[in-house]
Amino acid sequence: MADTETVQPTERKVDRKLLELLVCPMTKTTLEYDPKRQELVSRAAKLAYPIRNGIPIMLAEEARSLDD
């Protein structure tokens, strides 16, 4: 008899020290962490960089525009 197990996806936490070191690649300004949306927000660039599997994706082409 095979033992089956349901794996629930878990949200990975982002290291707070890493967040303190990261800056917006476009403007070099500080970022705000939005835990609900799992994003790093650059008010200066008006972009929100996604965090996927606990890894910040710091590419402008992957960022969401805050004008949306």
From TrEMBL:
Sequence intervals crossing the membrane: none
Superkingdom of this protein's organism: Bacteria
Coiled-coil regions listed: none
InterPro entries for the chain: Trm112-like
One matching Pfam family: Trm112p
HAMAP family to which the protein is assigned, alphabetical: UPF0434
Record-stated family: Belongs to the UPF0434 family.
Protein name: UPF0434 protein V6575_17340
